[in-house]
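Example S7 (structure tokens).
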């Protein structure tokens, strides 16, 4: 009976961790969408958000993580989240395999999730 209970508890812990990871990845995608919108429509004037506002801090951290990317990755990120191009469209424009573009986009989402949403 004890072994079965331990297995069940282990499965529950794994499922909880997987759900937390999915939520972080989803939130990272939303942060990148928000960054892309700001990149399309630069904010003019004073920001409504204060520097202690969690959204402001997340946006600042997202921008910092993105600024550390290589020029090639940044170009792909801008094309996807600012210009709204799909991975297939970017792959065609960049003359790269679609899978490589997807890997770059996935890497960026993981970086945002790990560094901004610890």
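Recovered sequence:
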């Amino acid at each position: 009976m004890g072994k079965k209970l331990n297995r069940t508890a282990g499965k529950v812990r794994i499922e909880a961790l997987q759900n937390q990871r999915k939520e972080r990845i989803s939130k990272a995608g939303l942060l990148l969408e928000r960054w892309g919108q700001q990149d399309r429509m630069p904010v003019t004037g004073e920001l409504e958000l204060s520097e202690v506002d969690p959204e402001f801090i997340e946006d600042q951290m997202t921008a910092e993580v993105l600024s550390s990317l290589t020029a090639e990755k940044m170009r792909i990120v801008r094309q996807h989240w600012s210009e709204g191009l799909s991975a297939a469209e970017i792959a065609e424009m960049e003359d790269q395999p679609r899978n490589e573009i997807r890997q770059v986009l996935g890497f960026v989402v993981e970086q945002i999730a790990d560094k901004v949403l610890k």
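Notes on this example. Helices lie at 2-40, 54-67, 71-82, 87-94, 98-115.
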